[in-house]
Amino acid sequence: MRLTLGGLCAAVSICGAAASPAAAPQVLVLTDAFTASADATAGQPLQARVDDFKERVAARFPAFYGIGRHPGRTQEDQDRRIGRALENFPRIRAGYERKGAEFASMLDAHLATFQARFPDYRPAHQIVVLHSLGEMDGGVRSFGNEHYLVFGMDILGRRSGNEAAFFDHELFHTYHHPALRDCGNAIWVPLWSEGMAVHVSLEMNPGASEDELLLNIPAGMAGKTRAQLSAALANLEGHLDSEDPRYFAELFTTDDGASALPWRRGYYLGFLVAQKAAQKRSAQQLARLDCKTARATIGSALRELRAETR
């Protein structure tokens, strides 16, 4: 079902006051479709269950569930991921359904808070709520010229505690995206994007823990990066303009390949860069920087950080 936020609130009967028109992005809800597929095919051969998922769920958002965005992944690989998700569903179902039922009211509340902090925010990304096959709790995904803010209830359903920093992080990405859209694929672009999102989520939620700020994925990432900060900053400075996918993976994914420095450290290093830049400009000003100015700002902040750690 495709709804505005207000329609989603009405559908689940748990939202408070409807969001203002400026805060009413389109929302595509696929969580119930996954549950229906899992229930309808329970006890059937696994391939039959996978085929039903493809027809009932994947066909409604093929850009996300297809293999085209995963270089090297075959359809057989994807089918195995789907099969595992279906088989594992009974173990996560309670959290999945609970968080799905709460999601509309959470989104409504956090959109209102975010728009109060950034009054010029105008949501342009479609929001999709789904089973992510283990990929994500939330994040921006772009397919062609279409941009989505995707929330995976299979992962989000496992989260507990204060989630305000998480929502502010993801909403900031949609606020920041227009300024970065034409900046290319160099490492500095995701570094700036993720670092600013962490900075803003802390600014909006003073006292948020590193766990709540998504800085401890994998476990202890922020502390391990601090322990090697001088080396990590020097390494980053030499790669800011790189487009190497292997280096991107090292900075922004949890793959545990060969590296003397912590994986996914780009989130923490980007956060330090954003904090340094925020000493001279507000978050709104930083979020509007054009590509050339943003790159120069990152370079300057990184040089200052390196000088402080020598």
Summarize the structure.
The protein has helices spanning about 5-10, 30-40, 45-55, 60-65, 75-115, 155, 165-180, 190-205, 220-225, 230-235, 245-250, 265-275, 285, 290-310, and strands at about 1-5, 25-30, 125-130, 140-145, 145-150.
Structure report:
It is built from 14 helices and 5 strands. With 310 residues, it is of the alpha/beta class. It has 2 domains: 2-160, no CATH class; 188-309, no CATH class. Strands 1-2-3-5-4 form a 5-stranded mixed β-sheet. Helix 1 (5-12) crosses helix 5. The longest helix has 43 residues, at 75-117.
Q: Summarize the amount of helix as a percent range.
A: 55-70%
Query: What gross morphology would you assign?
Result: globular
The mean pLDDT is 91
Number of separate domains = 2
| Alpha carbon gyration radius | 20 Å
Output the helix-strand order.
EHEHHHHEEEHHHHHHHHH
- How far apart are the first and last residues' alpha carbons, in Å? 55 Å
Largest sheet: 5 strands, mixed
Quaternary state, please?
Answer: single chain
Strand percentage lies at 5-15%
The structure class reads alpha/beta
- Number of helical segments? 14
Number of strands: 5
